[in-house]
User: Which sequence fits this backbone?
């Protein structure tokens, strides 16, 4: 078994490599950025989906909300407001360096706060529902949000909107900036979530997963814990959303912001693939799924989706608890054999 | 002083009358038993008391406070806990984790993101040793035998330091040797920790030994109550069990 010290050494080594990778592969920075994005998506989904056992299909809502709120703040903070005869989707705002970064920071934070408020409001309504009923209820969230966003002219309606251009002539280019920004957010998310899962709060989430009736009868206010967990997820997911909007440079309600078939499904598959309910599972799943997706796309174009589907099928059939779940079970089996021999 | 006071409680599911005009009192510090044939409404009564479902009419007082409209977690926090007929444990967590999460976690919100304190860990170890599960403490609770899970559930309830414990058939499915140990521990908990017990039990030997006062339910109504030997010789109770 890997001890905690060794694990930390490995983490620092991994981070050191990640920090210099952009210099080694300058042409693939955006691709590498997306690995960090995927890690954040999988980690945040797993808070409720894995640790609490509440499968949510609606987390994409918080991603899109973060994206839109941030983009609007970035657009309107330093410019004179909308010309009502202009087409919103064609507005491109030019900001100087300090304006750009200040509006980005304020926008990201506002997006995160709005997402948390949404999680609390929606959560108090639907997190009282148990298991499958909750899952079904969340199916509509992303769709509804996309429909609503498509009807609001202020954010470009169905044609979407453009995020401000990255200021020119800076020491650090756009790709590198967002690579390091996402690296930072992903690492912060990872360490914070790890601390949460080792705390009393984390064990309460696990208790809800294993037996919610028991948790309630022992005096745990289960709905409050679920809402708190979902809000923490929403916070980091919205930050990721704000970043993604700026990396792509264009936000569209159906294809990008509230895109269920891509980000929405990926975050679930990645967490399950790596092993839901573990801290390393979503990280591993994100790296494997995204690498596989890009590799298949490069070498098996046309058949890439089939290959990806096959990979998911193999994992679900042979490793139903995910890659890490499989090893965790084996470790637990060893423990029980040991204790039966009287050595435990 | 009466710790728990149930006054003419009615509960029906659609047309099925599960409890009709049921009253009982549990004095502080005593062990009280509830017996009755299968389907006589014992577990329904437990569910009504702990707030699992609203009652149709009647009153339930705990420590002088009306609790029949409170939710399960609120009643649990007042110091009334129950165990289940079928074991309810957190099966994918280890025994120690089961014990830790049963401690009073959210009384202090500031500490909620901290790990469990040393006192909690020590108390968990002590109580696991008390019920004889110390050696199995790092096993998943779901891998324990049914009888061991019942013991774990009992220990988990003790973690909360309850004033009253409602036990739904604590010895069902537990092997005969373990039953004797369990009776001793129930008595010990009652005497040393001063925890009042309200016990549903089918095993007559157990309940006659344990309880100081016994209520007998039949067909949803209170048939008789009295000291163990009175109940044992009550013709109505014998008839109810033999099906007359």
Assistant:
């Amino acid at each position: 078994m890997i001890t905690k010290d060794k694990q930390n050494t490995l983490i620092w080594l991994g981070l050191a490599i990640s920090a210099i990778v952009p210099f080694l592969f300058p042409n693939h920075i955006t691709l590498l950025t997306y690995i960090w994005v995927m890690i954040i998506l999988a980690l945040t989904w797993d808070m409720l989906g894995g640790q609490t056992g509440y499968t949510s299909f609606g987390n994409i809502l918080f991603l899109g909300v973060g994206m839109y709120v941030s983009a609007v703040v970035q657009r309107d903070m330093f410019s004179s407001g909308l010309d009502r005869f202009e087409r919103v989707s064609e507005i491109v705002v030019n900001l100087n360096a300090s304006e750009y970064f200040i509006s980005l920071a304020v926008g990201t934070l506002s997006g995160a706060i709005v997402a948390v408020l949404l999680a609390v409001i929606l959560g108090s309504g639907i997190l009282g529902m148990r298991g499958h009923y909750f899952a079904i209820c969340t199916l509509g969230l992303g769709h509804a949000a996309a429909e609503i966003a498509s009807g609001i002219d202020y954010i470009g309606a169905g044609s979407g909107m453009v995020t401000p251009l990255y200021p020119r002539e800076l020491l650090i280019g756009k790709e590198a900036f967002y690579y390091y920004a996402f690296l930072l957010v992903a690492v912060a998310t990872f360490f914070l979530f790890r601390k949460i899962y080792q705390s009393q709060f984390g064990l309460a989430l696990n208790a809800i997963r294993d037996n919610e009736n028991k948790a309630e009868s022992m005096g745990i206010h289960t709905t409050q814990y679920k809402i708190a967990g979902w809000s923490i997820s929403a916070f980091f997911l919205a930050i990721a959303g704000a970043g993604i909007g700026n990396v792509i440079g264009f936000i569209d309600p159906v294809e990008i912001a509230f895109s269920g078939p891509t980000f929405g499904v990926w975050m679930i598959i990645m967490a399950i693939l790596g092993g839901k309910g573990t801290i390393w599972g979503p990280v591993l799943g994100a790296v494997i799924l995204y690498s596989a997706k890009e590799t298949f796309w490069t070498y098996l174009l046309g058949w890439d989706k089939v290959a990806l589907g096959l990979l998911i099928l193999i994992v679900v059939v042979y490793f139903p608890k995910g890659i890490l779940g499989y090893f965790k079970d084996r470790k637990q089996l060893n423990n029980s054999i040991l204790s039966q021999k009287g050595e435990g | 002083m009466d710790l728990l006071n149930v006054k003419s409680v009615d509960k029906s599911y659609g047309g099925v009358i599960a409890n009709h005009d049921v009253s009982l009192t549990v004095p502080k510090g005593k062990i009280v038993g509830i017996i009755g044939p299968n389907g006589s409404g014992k577990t329904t009564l437990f569910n009504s008391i702990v707030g699992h479902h609203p009652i149709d009419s009647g009153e339930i007082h705990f420590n002088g406070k009306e609790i029949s409209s409170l939710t399960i977690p609120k009643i649990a926090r007042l110091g009334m806990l129950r165990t289940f007929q079928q074991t309810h444990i957190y099966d994918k967590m280890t025994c120690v984790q089961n014990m830790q999460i049963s401690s009073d976690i959210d009384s202090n919100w500031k500490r909620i993101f901290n790990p469990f304190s040393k006192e909690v860990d020590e108390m968990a170890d002590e109580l696991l040793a008390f019920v004889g599960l110390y050696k199995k403490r790092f096993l998943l609770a779901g891998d324990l035998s049914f009888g061991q899970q019942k013991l774990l559930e009992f220990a988990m309830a003790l973690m909360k330091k309850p004033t009253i414990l409602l036990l739904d058939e604590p010895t069902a499915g537990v092997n005969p040797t373990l039953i004797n140990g369990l009776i001793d521990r129930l008595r010990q908990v009652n005497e040393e920790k001063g925890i009042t017990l309200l016990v549903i039990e089918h095993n007559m030997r157990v309940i006659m030994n344990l309880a100081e006062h016994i209520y007998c339910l039949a067909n949803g109504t209170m048939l008789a109550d009295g000291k163990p030997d009175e109940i044992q010789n009550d013709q109505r109770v014998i008839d109810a069990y033999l099906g007359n």
Observations:
- Chain B touches chain A through 36 residues (CB under 8 Å).
- The first helix of chain B runs from residue 42 to 50.
- Chain B has two domains: 1-79+163-185+196-244, 83-161.
